[in-house]
Amino acid sequence: MTQDNANMSDKDAGSGDLFNTAAGWVLFAAALGLGLSILSGKYFHADNPERPETLGYIIEGVEETGSGPAEISFAEALASVTPADGEKAFAKCAACHSVEQGGANGVGPNLYGVMGAKFGHNPSFGYSSAISGAGGNWGWEEMNQWLANPRGYIDGTSMGFAGLSKIEDRAAIALYLNTFGSNIPVPEFVPAAAEEEAEPASDEAAEAGAEEGAAEAEATSEETAETAAS
């Protein structure tokens, strides 16, 4: 009996040692994992992510917005084209419009004399209420905006044309239309460099005039002093 009790005690002690050893290894593994996690986070900045200075790769075909050149002014576009260019560009419009004096209306009105005329200028054509009620005249900038985006310029128009994206095409057509019964003055385009050169010239002329006026005043003062002395 005493021997059996001793054997059981040895077994219990052996089981306890095994459990303690296993538990110790589990705790050691947990502590090691936590430590490695903290160290890797510090090393790779996982706790404070940063954008790399150079991106890994670029997706082809994606362009940054606003990177293209700004559109030139309408005056510059008008200076760069001719009515002959407008005749070619007007081919897009000829299916719906005629331009000759007395020409028939089509899907759209005859456009003779349209430049400088009021909106809805052709009394023989049935305009939409959006056009007839818009108020205004077909000047250069008005025609530019209309040709670029008819429905965006006059909301509610029945014109189904989407518009012309190139400002040179719009300018050429406007010039072409201007030769048919309108002939309103074409805006003059003055390059920025010419404007900058003109400003110093004006300043120099003003300075020269001021110096000349001062010299004349000084001469007059001297003459007056001499007359008084005599």
From TrEMBL:
Keywords, in A-Z order: Electron transport, Heme, Iron, Membrane, Metal-binding, Transmembrane, Transmembrane helix, Transport
Record keyword Flavoprotein present: no
Domain Cytochrome c: 81-181
Coiled-coil segments on the chain, per record: none
GO molecular function: electron transfer activity; heme binding; metal ion binding
Acidic residues compositional bias, start-end: 194-230
InterPro entries (UniProt xref): Cyt_c-like_dom, Cyt_c-like_dom_sf, Cyt_c_1A/1B
Gene3D superfamilies membership: Cytochrome c-like domain (1.10.760.10)
Transmembrane region(s): 22-41
PROSITE patterns, per database record: CYTC
Region Disordered, annotated ranges: 192-230
PANTHER family with a match to the protein in the record: CYTOCHROME C (PTHR11961)
Protein name: Cytochrome C
Organism: Erythrobacter longus
